[in-house]
Amino acid sequence: MVTAIAIGLRWEKATPYKILGIFIAFGGALFIVFWGANIKQGSEELAGNILYFFNCLGTALYIICAKPIFKYYPAMSITGWSYIVASIMMMVACLVGNNVESIYSFVCDDCPAGSKWRVPNNAIYALIYWILLTSVGSYLLMTWGNRYADASLVLAYTPLQPATSAVLSFILIQAGFTGKLTEPGINILGVIGIFIGLAFVIYDNRKNQRLQQEEREKREYTKVNDLAYDDSKADGEDEVFFEDDAI
Asked: Which of 6, 88, 113, 180 could be disulfide-bonded to 11 (CB atoms 3.0-4.6 Å)?
């Protein structure tokens, strides 16, 4: 999504390697998530997919809109102000969701009665981990990387999330921590597609950086030669001027 927006704004070029790599990585991620899954059709699933689409769109716009701001603010300031605005929006959403019964039942249909503002004890550590690492830490690193890399490259690593989840689930199950985890099956092969797709994107990014560097060096070389030619031409005119005076 961010690649399509960046290409539409003419910030990036739609190169074959980049497009092919993103599609291959996305296909590998889909294979991990949906292979063998029991997908049910219904209004809740459709609403969830729509909300997930807007979530992806919001992340893509965050990366795109942050690009011009790097001229004035560092990555930490951009991330901090984004979280301040997001906190206010989340507070409003929580107030509305917890006071409108239809919204509350849609968001949390399996929550027990009287638990609107209560956080279960077994979810506290998971919530701390999610806030500090998955949310704040990852967005700070992502914003910092966005300063030095193309927007499409920053989010090209998103398909790694289901891959790392599958690998981590396998490690935890083998270590004895089962819970509600399920050991990945043949869908783990989607990791191959993810890494191949990322290799295409990284190769394309490195190639473009090398071409841009060569163009800069060529312009600097031409500029230096032009200055040297102007200096030599000026020296020749001065010599002619002195010869005329001598005559």
From this structure: 6
Count of C-beta atoms within a 10 Å radius of residue 220: 10
Where on the phi/psi map is residue 78: left (φ > 0), alpha (ψ -120 to 50), or beta? alpha
d(CA 172, CA 155): 27
Give 15's DSSP letter: -
As a whole number, the mean pLDDT across the chain is 76
Nearby residues of 64 by Cβ (< 8 Å), 6 or more positions away: 2, 5, 6, 9, 11, 151
Examine the pLDDT at 242 and tell me if it is beyond 50. Answer: no
Number of C-beta neighbours around residue 29 at 10 A: 21
Alpha carbon distance 119, 117 (integer Å): 7
When pLDDT is averaged across residues 96-101 and rounded to a whole number, the result is 85
> With a threshold of 0.85, does the pTM exceed it?
no
